[in-house]
Design a protein that fits this description.
The complex is a heterodimer of chains A (about 575) and B (about 300).
Chain A (H helix, E strand, L loop, with lengths): L3 E6 L11 H9 L4 E7 L5 H14 L3 E6 L2 H14 L7 E5 H5 L5 H18 L21 E5 L3 H12 L3 E5 L14 E2 L4 E2 H14 L3 E4 L2 E9 L2 E8 L13 H5 L3 E3 L8 E3 L1 E2 L11 E2 L14 H5 L12 E7 L1 E4 L3 E3 L16 E3 H8 L20 E8 L15 H15 L4 E6 L9 H10 L4 E4 L2 E7 L2 E8 L4 E7 L1 E6 L1 E3 L3 H8 L11 E3 L3 E5 L4 E3 L9 H20 L15
Parallel strand pairs in A: 1-2, 1-3, 3-4, 5-6, 5-17, 6-9, 17-30, 19-26, 20-21, 20-26, 21-22
Antiparallel strand pairs in A: 7-8, 10-11, 11-16, 12-13, 14-15, 18-27, 23-24, 24-25, 28-29
Chain B lengths: L1 E5 L9 H13 L3 E4 L21 H12 L4 E4 L2 H16 L1 H17 L12 E4 H9 L1 H7 L8 E4 L9 H4 L9 H8 L3 E2 L13 H4 L1 H17 L4 E4 L2 H9 L1 H7 L8 E3 H8 L17 H6 L4
Parallel strand pairs in B: 1-2, 1-3, 3-4, 5-6, 5-7, 7-8
Classes of the chains: A alpha/beta (about 575), B alpha/beta (about 300).
Chain lengths: ~575, ~300
């Protein structure tokens, strides 16, 4: 039986400097299907290409893994040779060694990373004798013209809309009961101060009603097999316990006796066990929180079912897993705020009046728990002195994350500005390390906060935050004047680091996407292909690949959508091979 | 259980009460502290430049001798000794060139003395009594053995810096949000104050070179404790005790409205709660006498 051949490129010594290619080769050689591992100092050279061609002809390889550069190079340099040797997309795969080599670790860890990724890719190869390839009905060149989008925040919504508006089917999968992501939680957006919900809700409604978009909320992707152009996604649809006939009247909410901490409002309010996260939710169907509902097991309550006029409550709903064929995948799983665990910093989690940036967004939001009125969580008083602390656990390799979270300089300026608009006689202080306002109109926005709105910017770090006599005392330094500063504040807002959404691990496992040490997915090429994931046919959008603000996320979403559409529109690169019979 | 114990210079002299109460209280909890024979100075401060490698020879010699005594752990009470020994051990374990150079010094010394020498690779673990109480004895067990709970005694816990920093090398507790002292004092029944200044610097050696700056630092700590209604300030380090206790007379003269607060080592409170015999206490060593408040509030 024909086995797998592996070509390993050294890029003229650049790769072996960072990855132990010998170990990589010998580990892959152990794979039962691998017949040969062939190293070469520069595979993309004439000599390298000739070597591949000879090996393909001479050794009768059934499938090939090329461990070398990014996928776009593979496409240009190696694919024609593969096609000449009649190896289809299912029999060839590219491992981008640069993804592993760029990791900030030691040689051993980088080598292990490459071996793990290579083994995962080997499992995706189909040896010709394994099965006969069937020509799918909906595609004439082996590409299923349907995209899967994972994550229903602004990135996922935009990508889904762009693909769907190009005429292709999209399956949009979201874990929460509604799409909207973090953006729908925000009050107003920098630098234009337009309302976040007003920008997003039309897009949410459009994607929810789009004839080409199949929206699956309370669902998760639990499996992804196959390859570029032909993936089979396993999607688990968790029970919502509320049928589509729900009219969102809200009678059930009045009847429900269970109070639960409202995560959509970042814990600043309570909600019921049956709920709609926010009034503009898409789909506009309530959902039952089965962790807290009393009526599920055993039937102890049932109050919501009794009052539901359309009879939309179904306590017996079960999870359903379905398999969907797609040609490309867009991952837009987003971010979450750094979680402190047991150790609090600056009194977060210890004092009610120390909150994070996302919580302050909810306090500012007209649809938030205070209807946009700025109040202290502890006693509801209007804070007259507010301290904003930037770079909390960001740019902090020792105790937090070494990277810059990118969005905090801007949202803190926005927070301070909006606070001053709401409380003109209040004082806002911002402790900063330096201001990173690199986007269009961003620097002017920060200047406006300082000059027009009188926000006091103090360059220095805060050493301690503690409560005294009902106020939050902040100790810091103003390094520009070289003085220690003490502020007795009413409210402290921490611009905490953002980290990948906790779902990234399961997505990484399911998709085989490479992630860096912080959990951000790695692009095939940071400059030449920033939205391409490390697995061909999977694209990355927004904060799942690194801290990104809204405009950048939307741009990436449109970029990824263009890549998907290009793939769907491509002329057949090669006909699906006729099944061949092995000679006796 | 038994630990090899390294008292250090201050604990056999000015901080004798810290040492005696510690040993007696440990014994009451079935922790036997066996004093290391022929111990020498720990080196007092950890040398921060790698040119001063010779400053690491003294602490590592102590660790080598501890290994020679057949113990896997070396217990200390003084924050300075703990910090220097633990960091020297860390250097040996993690910095190859320093390990090599320190061992070369020591090998030379041992061979000249006609003794055998095996390269030291950081085999001995440096432990503080606080972590033994927390991790091995357990605070619940401490509470169970307390015969005179210090209820009503409002205590401000004060860590200082050397017990916790640098966190990556010491690792006893979180350097900014530690809990071990609060947990111990809570186990003794004390009313523990949420004390914001608990990890601020007391002024340390500036007490000698720039006494005014050190006094300002110490004053802020004591004054806050006093303002928050502390009956006692609990400390872990002899130098903190010097700055915070012995200089209160000066604070009293310098700052108006200053109210004195007795400063006590945590081992003294531990011994009191365990009702250890009278001889170990030496109240006369305190500049601010803790007895009045202990008698009126603590019922002692």
């Amino acid at each position: 039986m024909a086995g797998i051949g592996i070509f390993v490129c050294d890029c003229d010594g650049e790769l072996s400097e960072r990855i132990d290619l010998e170990v990589l080769g010998s580990r892959l050689q152990e794979h039962p299907d691998v017949v040969d591992v062939i190293p070469h100092p520069h595979l993309c050279s004439e000599a390298g290409l000739a070597l591949i061609e000879e090996s393909l002809a001479g050794k009768g390889l059934g499938a090939v893994l090329v461990a070398a550069c990014a996928y776009d190079l593979y496409d240009v340099a190696f694919r024609p040779i593969m096609e000449k040797a009649e190896l289809g997309p299912g029999q060839t795969v590219n491992l981008d060694l640069r993804v592993s080599s760029s990791r900030d670790e030691n040689v051993k860890a980088r080598t292990k990373h490459s071996v793990d990724r290579a083994l995962a890719l080997l499992d995706r190869l189909e040896l010709p004798s394994d099965k006969l390839e069937l020509v799918p009905e909906e595609a004439d060149h082996g590409v299923v013209r349907r995209a899967l989008v994972i994550g229903g925040g602004i990135g996922g919504i935009q990508a889904a809309l762009d693909i769907a508006n190009s005429g292709h089917e999209v399956v949009l999968v979201e874990r929460q009961p509604s799409i909207g992501g973090h953006m729908i939680q925000l009050s107003e957006t920098f630098p234009s101060l337009d309302c976040s919900q007003c920008i997003l809700t039309p897009k949410m409604a459009e994607v929810g009603r789009h004839p080409k978009v199949r929206l699956l909320t309370t669902s998760e992707v639990t499996g992804l097999e196959g390859r570029l152009g032909r993936f089979t996604a396993k999607i688990e649809r968790k029970p919502r316990y509320v049928l589509d006939s729900c009219t969102a009247c809200g009678d059930c909410v009045d009847a429900c006796p269970v109070l639960v901490c409202d995560q959509f409002n970042t814990g600043l309010r309570w909600r019921k066990a049956i709920f709609q996260p926010f009034p503009q939710a898409v789909p506009s169907i309530f959902a039952l929180d089965d962790e807290h509902c009393l009526g599920l097991f055993p039937l102890a309550c049932g109050k919501c079912e009794q009052v539901c006029e359309p009879g939309s409550i179904d306590y017996d709903m079960q999870p359903v897993t379905e398999e969907i064929e797609v040609g490309a995948v867009v991952v837009a799983t987003g971010y979450e705020m750094y979680s402190y665990g047991d150790v609090s910093e600056y009194g977060y989690g210890k004092y009610d009046d120390v909150i994070n940036g996302l919580q302050f967004e909810r306090l500012l939001s007209a649809s938030g728990p205070t209807m946009g009125k700025v109040m202290r969580p502890s006693d509801g008083r209007e804070p007259k002195e507010v301290v904003f602390i930037q770079c909390v656990r960001s740019r902090n390799p020792e105790r937090g994350k070494p990277y810059c979270s990118g969005i905090c300089c801007m949202y803190t300026a926005k927070h301070a500005m909006l606070y001053k608009h709401r409380v003109p006689d209040g004082q806002a202080f911002v402790f900063y390390m330096d201001i990173r306002a690199g986007g269009k109109g961003y620097e002017e926005f920060v200047q406006r906060a300082m000059e027009n709105d009188g926000v006091m910017y103090l360059r220095g770090r805060v050493s301690k935050v503690f409560e005294e006599n009902g106020r939050i005392v902040v100790w810091g330094a103003d390094t520009l004047v070289g003085k220690r500063i003490e502020i007795a504040a009413d409210l402290v807002v921490l611009a905490t680091a953002i980290v990948p959404n906790d779902g990234y691990e399961s997505v990484a496992q399911v998709t085989d996407l490479a992630a860096d040490e912080h959990g951000f997915f790695t692009a095939t090429h940071g400059k030449a292909d920033p939205v391409g994931g490390s697995v061909p046919g999977i694209y990355l959008v927004g904060c799942c690949q690194g801290p990104t603000d809204i405009p950048e996320t939307v741009a990436q979403a449109s970029g990824a959508a263009a890549k998907v559409c290009a793939l769907f529109a491509a002329e057949p690169k090669r006909a699906v091979p006729e099944p061949m019979l092995a000679e006796a | 259980m038994e630990y090899l114990y390294y008292p250090g210079c201050t604990l056999v002299d000015t901080a004798r009460n810290f040492d005696r109460c510690g040993r007696a209280a440990a014994r009451a909890l079935d922790v036997e502290l066996v004093e290391m024979p022929d111990w020498t100075c720990c080196g007092t401060t950890f040398p921060l430049t790698n040119r001063k490698i010779v400053g690491l020879v003294a602490p590592v010699r102590t660790l080598v001798n501890a290994r020679g005594e057949g113990y896997e752990e070396l217990l200390t009470l003084c924050s300075f000794c703990y910090n220097v020994l633990k960091r020297a051990n860390y250097a040996v374990r993690n910095r190859g060139d320093e390990r090599m150079r320190i061992n070369a010094y020591l090998e030379d010394e041992f061979v000249r003395a006609g003794q055998e020498y095996d390269e030291y690779e950081g085999e001995v673990e440096v432990v503080h009594l606080l972590e033994v109480l927390r991790d091995t004895v357990g605070f619940e067990s401490v509470t169970a053995q307390v015969t005179r709970p210090l209820t009503n005694l409002k205590v401000a816990p004060y860590y200082g810096c050397l017990l916790l920093r640098p966190q990556s090398e010491i690792g006893l507790d979180d350097a900014d949000e530690p809990t071990v002292l609060e947990d111990l004092l809570g186990a003794l029944g004390c009313d523990v104050i949420d004390f914001p200044h608990r990890v601020e610097c007391c002024g340390s050696y500036l007490g000698l070179s720039s006494p005014d700056i050190a006094l300002q630092n110490s004053y802020e700590i004591v004054h806050t404790a006093s303002r928050l209604g502390a009956d006692v300030l609990a400390v872990v380090c002899p130098l903190c005790a010097y700055n915070l206790d012995l200089r209160q007379e000066e604070m009293h003269q310098r700052f108006s409205g200053f109210r004195q607060v007795p400063v006590m080592y945590f081992t003294e409170l531990l011994a009191l709660a365990l009702e250890v015999e009278e001889e170990v206490y030496s109240w006369e060593r305190h500049a601010v006498d803790p007895l009045p408040v202990l008698q009126t509030v603590g019922g002692i």
